[in-house]
Design a protein that fits this description.
Structural class: mainly alpha
Strand order of the largest sheet: 1-2
Helix content: 55-70%
Strand content: under 5%
Order of helices and strands: HHEEHHHH
Length: about 150
Amino acid sequence: MSETAPHGGGSDREQPRYSIGEVAERSGLSRDTLRWYERIGLMDYIGRDHAGKRRFSDRDLEWLTLIGRLRTTGMSVADMVRYAELVRAGETTFPQRLEMFRNTRADVLAKIDELRQTLAVLDYKIALYEGKAQEVGPRAAQSPNRGP
């Protein structure tokens, strides 16, 4: 699935060439997860070979990479499915997609800030137990989690 072109065009990256096992190995997802993604509409139509077995394209692999990144952000499966629906609906949905990504970006930035604060506490604790607490900056030392 692509942002700009419908699935099944004619480009080389749209040619079905990978088995579900190959895609599972490349993506790190199980075969069951790949089937589930297709069943819930997270994946666009997956081509089949003459025996009816799924065949994935490079475009499908690119889509799975994006889905993996969205999962890392904490985006819900329901929101990812909604995004997939918007992509399939075409360019008229750019404003909705933009809003989704702006909201997700804000969530990611908040998580990064939280992780930085957590890292500062960990650095303080490490320095404390190494006997170097004086060397750690005041931000970590002022943490509300300065207990044992």
